[in-house]
């Protein structure tokens, strides 16, 4: 990973597809990913890790089985390890994710929405 300065807004401006995370940088054993979200994702869990969402713009709802968590710009929420969740966004959301390297976006669910992590160069 380059030690160059990375700009979140510039990185997000290059993303054209929803639900396709791109690694912005890494720190220790974690990836910092930027992603655009719109529509409803898939219900899934991450059996081995927590997942941090930081909303840059828009409104993101993280559905949990017992409640919905609504995030706006600047809001952070951590989905605990092994908690089933389903992100959804009526309109486009720009977000940053912090996850251990190798974390698959669909967790244990797999399927058509599983993305191959993309890199910025």
Automatic annotation (TrEMBL):
InterPro entries: Cupin_2, PKS_Associated_Protein, RmlC-like_jellyroll, RmlC_Cupin_sf. Pfam families: Cupin_2. Residues 38-96 form the Cupin type-2 domain. Gene3D superfamilies: Jelly Rolls. This is Mannose-6-phosphate isomerase-like protein (Cupin superfamily). It comes from Microbacterium trichothecenolyticum. The lineage of its organism: Bacteria, Bacillati, Actinomycetota, Actinomycetes, Micrococcales.
